[in-house]
Specification:
Strand content: 35-45%
CATH topology: Nuclear Transport Factor 2, Chain: A
Number of strands: 6
Strand order of the largest sheet: 2-1-6-5-4-3
Order of helices and strands: HHEEHEEEE
CATH class: Alpha Beta
Largest sheet: 6 strands, mixed
Structural class: alpha+beta
Distance between the termini: 28 Å
CATH architecture: Roll
Radius of gyration: 17 Å
Amino acid sequence: MITNDLATLMRVQQWLYREARVLDSRRYDQWLELLDENIRYRIPSRALMRQAHVKDFTTWSVERELEGEGALALIDDDLEALRSRVERLQSGMAWAETPPSMSRRLVSNVMIDAIADDCMSVVSTIFLAKSRSDGRVLFTAERRDKLAPIDGDFRLRERYVVLDDAVLAADNLSLLF
């Protein structure tokens, strides 16, 4: 049973910080070990909405900007797809990451949103800086995670990344959020 107390919040924060450090260190095999076998990792597309197209401002929300009619997600991966993505990053054949990008992830505003017996919903904010010889790209996003408790630790069961940009400044989304 998961409880919503300060100690649980601290454990969740430490887990998210450890995950960021693993990714920034390019230890992708260790990152895969943090994932649940039923992981779903999604980054939806986001549309700009003009105020003139909003009929009711009381219902205007970020959710209305995500994956609108006919839109495709930018990324929608399961564990097998994430393993393939990691294999490609480690192969030296991923042109978008040759040489590898330097990255730094800052995770903040961590909040436990809901708790069930087998999983907890966690919302956090991420600031991701990606540096390469040709420049730097900055991402900000909200992450909506589902963490499953396993053997005194957590496994990431679901990640939904809501980017704060409708038009991306990056040439690709090769890094993991």
